[in-house]
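Subject: complex prediction, re-run

Hi both,

The earlier run crashed halfway through, so I resubmitted it with identical inputs.
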Amino acid sequence: MSLWASTSQTIGPFFSIGLARIKQDNLVGEGVSGERVTIEGRMLDGDGKPVPDGLVETWQANAHGKYAHPEDDQNKSLETGFKGYGRVMTDDQGRFQFTTIKPGSVPAPDGKTQAPHIAVSVFARGLEKRLVTRIYFPDEPSNSSDFALNLVEPERRETLIARKVADKSGMLEWNIILQGPGETVFFDCGL
Amino acid sequence: MAKVVGYRRPYIGTQPKHLHPSYVSSIKRAPSKPLIYLPHTLSEITGPLFGKESVDVKASDLTNQHSGQALGERIVVSGRVLDEDGRPVRDTLIEIWQANAAGRYLHKRDQHNAPLDPNFTGCGHALTDSEGRYRFVTIRPGEYPWGNHHNAWRPAHIHFSLFGPAFATRLITQMFFPGDPLIPFDPIFNCTADEKARNRLISVFDWETTIPSQALGYRFDIVLSGREATPMEK
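This time it finished cleanly. Structure:
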């Protein structure tokens, strides 16, 4: 039996009535280990205008590089206070912000490990299906050997790497440019 | 670490492209550069899981969340969530949202000149059961105008959000109603090239789930991406 996956349709402008219930802008529960970071940014369209009706969902491993999911069979510790899922909505200026920990590294298809990263889904009115991207971390030596970053032309890689915010320790900036100059790298992840 | 088995990629034409100029909002929001093919890794074959503790069982009845009954035609929307091999997707979270019977969302940016219903919020959620089944009671949403082009009207629809077992299986879609005359003119519905894939977004009227004297039943099955064959299955 072989069915086709259902067709994606836009989230539209009014999704917050259905999706705000499990908003998750602080992923760090009690007793969670790791370097705490707050990631803030803006979602902008091809004219540089803010996207006030965007949804950003994130998925990541904990500080040990372990996903809270049964298919992660690595011999690494789970932490009950960290599920790894985030969901935030953009505001009228297209801004979003969430607090999490820097994840550990996880296995790569080439037998090496992937640099610490957060998997991201971007939804908005005007997007008939999600855009998939990733957030990487600044000053991370393993970025240079990361298999996914190396799929990207060197001059566009920086769109995937969050930047430090001057004078604000633990704060990172990472923007989502849907189109045009500085366009964020988006991946084909299937659906 | 066992070898990673990824999820299947969509069949050609069965999913919308990002840029679809007749859907005007896509023009400035669709990426202009080609997507970069990402092989699935542990990051994509895992994903958030929501258990019974994250669900309010009363949230599957959208007509009964306030002091009075929601206005409009009461309906039952039910179906199954399957993967591309026809296997049930169990215990997965479904979130829905919709306009009220008059075609108005309870949202600050919805400026449509139609009444709000104090007894209808327009959102619900549920987990699928062990057979992948779900069931909502709601009211039939109204059609409503939008600014896409002159005299543009959205067909009646309910938004569905699903997670499935992995980051790679995330899906947000819309359910339409059979016989709605607006469907063939809807740029959002028409973004998908394959006619059969498009038409599967239209629910089916169903006597078996219709409740006598209470509510018409509509069936809407949803298929999430299936697994690539493992070497053992080949």
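The CA atoms of residues 109 and 134 of chain B lie 30 Å apart.

- K.
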